[in-house]
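Appendix B, example 12.
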Amino acid sequence: MFTGTEGPLTFHLRKTGISYQQYRTDKWTDETDPLTNKKIKLPSQTTIYRVDVNWLNSNVDPVVQKNFPTEGVSNFYLTNCPDGVFDVRSFKEVIYKNIYKGIDTRWYHKDGHLKYDYLVSAGSDHKNIQIEYKGATLSINTIGELIIETPLGKIIEDTPYITQNGRELKSKWIIDGNIISFQIENIDPLLPLIIDPGVRIWGTYYGGNGGDSALNNAVDASGNVWIGGTTSSTNGNSIATVGSHQVIYGGGADNAYIAKFNAAGVRQWGTYYGGTVREFGFNIAIDNSGNSYLCGQSLGSSGNIIATIGSHQPAFAGTADAWLVKFNSNGIRQWGTFYGDVGLEAGYGVAADAAGNVYLVGKTDAPTTNVISTTGSHQQNFGGVEDGFIVKFNSAGVRQWGTYYGGTGTDVSRNVHVDALGNIFVVGWTDNSVPNVIGTAGAHQNVYGGGGYDSYIVKFNSSGTRLWGSHFGGNDVDLAYDCETDLLGNIYMSGKTASTNSVATTGSHQLTNGGGTHDAFLVSFNATTGTRNWGTYYGGSGDEESWGCSVHKSGHIMMTGHTQTSTGTVIATPGSYKPIYGGGTWDAFMVQFDPSTNGTRTWGSYFGGSDDDVGYGCSSDNAYHFYMTGSTFSTPGTDIATVGSHQPLYGGGLFGDAYLQKFYDCPAPLAPTNTTIPANQTICEPGTTTLAAISGATMSWFSTPSSTTVIGTGSVYITSPLSSGIYTYYVEAATCASSTRTPISVTVNPIPILNVVAFPTLVCAGKNSTLTVSGAASYTWDSSATTNTTLVTPASTSIYTVSGTTTLGCTNSKTISVTVYPLDPITFTPEKDTSCLHIFGGTPILLVGTPSGGVFSGANVSGNYLNPTALGVFNPVYTYTNPTNGCVNSATATILVVNCTSLNEEDEFVKQISIYPNPTKGNVVIETNSDIEKTITILDARGRIIRNETSKQRTLQYSIADEANGIYFIKISSSLGSREFKLVKE
C-alpha cells in the first residue's frame, strides 16, 4: 500500500503489517559516465533480504487515514508497468484505523527516522497486539531496544515509551519465539495510551552568509506562517525572493526581513527591509485578510526605504526611530511609517485586530507632546528617562491615538496582543515605584516588587482607555517578553526572572527558582480583572529565558525560550521530541503547560544541535501545530532542518542562521464532564432519559467503553425506551485525539404488575361492586380513593382505572370493567288515586302495572286491588323482576281514602271545580261555579291537615310555598257534594 526508505533500508506498509527490505552490494564494476567521461563504480551483484512483520489476528482490511501530503507528485515507469503510473502522492503520516478493536497504528518520520505508534483507545486491550517476525532472529539489548538480526545486518526498534494521561508507564518488549508483544505496568483500562508527544513536521534554516535571527513568527487560519527578524546576509535569494518588495540587501550592518511559508514549509516570498544604515526587525503580526506587519528599529535610513510618502511619519526624526510596515498577502508593501522623535525609539511589538487596525508598542525617550502621545490619551506626558508607548493605526496607517506608559524611571513596552473583543494587552518591564502609574487597585500587584525591574501587564480597550494594570515581580529583575489570551478569558505572560519570591503559586509546575542567572516564567491572569490565576518558574541550575508563549489549539499553553541547564528533567521530559541536551552554551526549549491544573507541565523538550541554539517566538494554528523560531549555530545533521525542507543546510555565516520549526502535538482532550441532573439517572421502565455532558471538543456517545459505533453526537443524548436494568453510556471528547470516556449510568426500575378484580363484575343498575387491586405499594383510583379496595355503584357499564406505585416510585395503571344491566322501566297506574269511605265501605281500586308479570304489595293490597277499608293514604308497590338477568325494579303509588259526605259525589257542583297550576311551585288557585258556602281542606301525603277553612268565594288562592316538595291532597265540600284533588308541589 505504501513504501518508503530509511537510509539503506526500504520498507513496505501492507494491510496486515510491514516488510523491511535490506540491500548489500557484493560486487562492483567500473563504468564510464557518459556525461563526464569519468570512471565510476556501479553495483554488479546485489543481495536483497526481506523481513516480514505481521500483525497476528488483526483486521485484514483496515481503514487508512493519509495525513500531511507533500508538495508535488511522482510518476513511475517500471518493468511491470511500462506505460507509467502517474500522479502518485506522498504523505508524511499514515494511520491504520482499528487494526485491532480500538487500536490504531500510526506511521511517520521523527528526527529523520521511521517511527510508528500504537494508539490504544480507552477500554481496549493492548495485549491483542501480537507482532510476528518472519526471517529474523529477535533479541533485546541491555537498554531495552529490540534487535532484529538478519543475514545483512541489524534493524533496531527503540525501547517502548508509553504515556497515559501525561504519565509515563513502565513498559518493555516481550519475546515469545518469533512473536513480540508489550508488557505495560499500572495501566488504567479507562484511559487511552498516548505515545511520543511533540512530533516535528518540518524544520528549516533561514539564513545566508551573514548573521540571521528570527525573533518571532505568526500563523494564519490557512496554516501559512511568517517569520521576521534581522539579517546581515547578502547572498543570492537566501533572504529575499525574486520580485519581492526589496530583493537586494539595503546595506549597512543589518537589514530587517520578513518571509512567508505555506503550511508545507515552502517559501512563498521573502523580502529585505532596510537601507544603508541599520535596521532591526523585532516582531510580526498577521490580520484576518492575510496582510502582514513588521516592526523594528531604524538608525537612520533615508528616502522611502522605511516610510512611504504620505504616511503618518515619512521622515526619520533622529538617533533611532521605531518603524512599522504593512505588506499584503503577496508581499507587496502597502504603507510604512517611522514613529519617533529626536531621541531613541524602538518598535518591539505589533498586533492586529479583527477590523484591520494595528497596534505598535515599544520604548521612547522623546518628551515632545503629540509625537508619541495624542491629546486626551491615557498618558499624554512623558514620564522620564524611558517610557513605553502604545499607538493605534487604522488599516490605512492613519494614527488613531497614542500614549506613553511609564513613570519617572525606565519603562519598556515589549509586546502587545489583541483579543477577540478588541482589547489590547501590553507587557514589558518597569522600575517605577509610584502607585497607580503602572499597576491599578484591584489588579494582581499594584506596587513595585523590588529588584532592578518588575514585569508589567496592562489592558486597554480599543479607544485607549486603561482598564487595569499590574506589576509582576519580586526581589530581583523580572522581564516580560510575550503575552496571549485564550478563549476562556485568561491572559498569559512569559519572560525571565531572577526573583526568588512572588512568581510561582502553590500547585503550579515549579514553585521555586531553579538557580542560575535567570529562570523563565509563565503566569496566567484573569483577563477581565487582572488578578493572577497561577504562576510558575521554569528553569534549572543554568540560565533560562522565555521569549514566546502561545495558546495551543488544545487549550494548553506553549512556551519557548533557551536554556543552559543540560541535565535532568527540569527542561525536557522523557519521551519528548528531544529529551537530551544537544550541546553548546545554549539549547532552545519548548514546553507545554495545562492551564486547567494550575500550570502543571504536560511535557518539555530541548531543541538544538551540537552548537548554540536559542529559542525566541512561538505561535499556534487551528490544526494542533505550533511553530518556533530562533537562531542557531548548529550545522550538521537534521537537528535543525528536515530533509527536503526549504533550506536543509546551514547558510554559512559566522553569526548564526535563523530557523523556523513546525511541530504537531495532539494531546488527548480532557474527558467530558457529566452535567446530567442528577449525575446518574434513575428512571422507570419503559422510560427514556436525557444525558448531558460538556467539553471544549466534539463529543460522541457510545454504548460500551470500547465500542466504535457512535450512537449519538453533541452535548445531549436521549436514550431509547429502556426495560428494567442498569445501563451505562459513555461520552467521549475528540479533537485530533480522543479523550477517555466518561461513564454515565442509568438505573431503570421495573414498573408494578397490577392485578385488578371486580366482584361482582355483572351488576344491576343501582347495585354495588367491590374493586380490589394488588401488586404495588400504594394505589390511586380514578375516584380518588387510595385504598386497595373500593366500592362502586355504576349507573351504566363503566371502566375504572387504578394507578399503582412501587416503593421505588415507579407507577403503572390498569383498568377493569363492570357491566351494568339497566332496570326495566315500569309504570304503576291505579284506577284512581283518591277514594272515599262511606257507610258501606270503600270501592276496591284496580291496580295496573307494566310490564306485566310483576307483583303488587302493600297495606290493603290483595292481588291487583287495593281495598280501602280505612281512611288515610295508602302506598301500594308494584315490583317487577326481569326473568333473564334477575334485576328488580319497583314503583309506588299514592291513594287517598277520605269520608264520603253524600251518596252523590258526582253533582254538577263537583264537576265544575278546577285547581291550577298543578304541579305548582307554591301557589294554587281553586275555581268553583257557585257562591255557596264550601269547606277547603289541604292535607299532605301523610294525612296531616295543613289548611282548613270555609269560604263562599268562587275563586280562592292558597300558598304551600313553605311546605316540602311532594304530594298534597285538596278536598272541597259543600251542601252540593265534595271532591278530592291530588296536588304535586315541586
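Residues 902-906 have pLDDT under 50 and may be disordered. Helices lie at 908-911.
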